[in-house]
């Protein structure tokens, strides 16, 4: 009886190990295939991607953080967001948003859209937009962030990884 329990225990452990190995190996291979990096952005199969400028080097006298994101939003659509936060009320806080499409033949990003949003006498500005895009390409978002009391304004940037739109 003890031998039977021991054999059953070993068999169950082997089955569990086999199941875990077979489930995780394909996922590892898939993520290794999707790690191409172009101009700082990885090409991914994720549903969304976000980027931020927040680190000690980009924080300044006025800018606290700049951020942007891209999200799949249905068939051939993406949702794009960007925001700039100052650490106090400033004369101008602004963001410029760029939407890029990956061009495989050139191994580079090409800009397909951009817009700007400003706020005066405020500490925060944000903008978002739904965009219809061509399927079968990777898309990413870049953003420039500005804040300050007078020109030249303090600036930083953020960008996302690329996401595939099928």
From TrEMBL:
InterPro entries from the xrefs? DUF6147 (IPR046145)
Task: Give the signal peptide range.
Answer: 1-30
Q: Does the keyword Signal apply?
A: yes
Per the record, a Pfam family?
DUF6147
Task: Kindly provide the name given to this protein in its UniProt entry.
Answer: DUF6147 family protein
Keyword Signal part of the UniProt annotation: yes
Keywords noted in UniProt: Signal
Recorded source organism is Mediterraneibacter gnavus (Ruminococcus gnavus)
């Amino acid at each position: 009886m003890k031998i039977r329990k021991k054999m059953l225990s070993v068999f169950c452990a082997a089955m569990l190990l086999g199941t875990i190995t077979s489930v995780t190996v394909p996922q590892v291979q898939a993520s290794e295939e999707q790690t191409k990096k172009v101009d700082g952005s990885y090409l991914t199969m994720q549903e969304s991607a976000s980027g931020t400028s927040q680190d000690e080097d980009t924080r300044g006298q006025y800018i606290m953080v700049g951020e942007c994101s891209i999200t799949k939003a249905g068939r051939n659509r993406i949702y794009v967001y960007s925001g700039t936060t100052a650490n106090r009320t400033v004369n101008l806080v602004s963001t410029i948003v760029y939407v890029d499409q990956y061009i495989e033949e050139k191994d580079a990003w090409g800009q397909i859209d951009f817009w700007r949003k400003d706020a005066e006498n405020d500490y925060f500005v944000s903008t978002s937009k739904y965009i219809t895009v061509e399927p079968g390409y990777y898309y990413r978002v870049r953003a420039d962030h500005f804040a300050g009391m007078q020109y030249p304004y303090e600036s930083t940037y953020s960008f996302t990884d690329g996401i595939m739109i099928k």
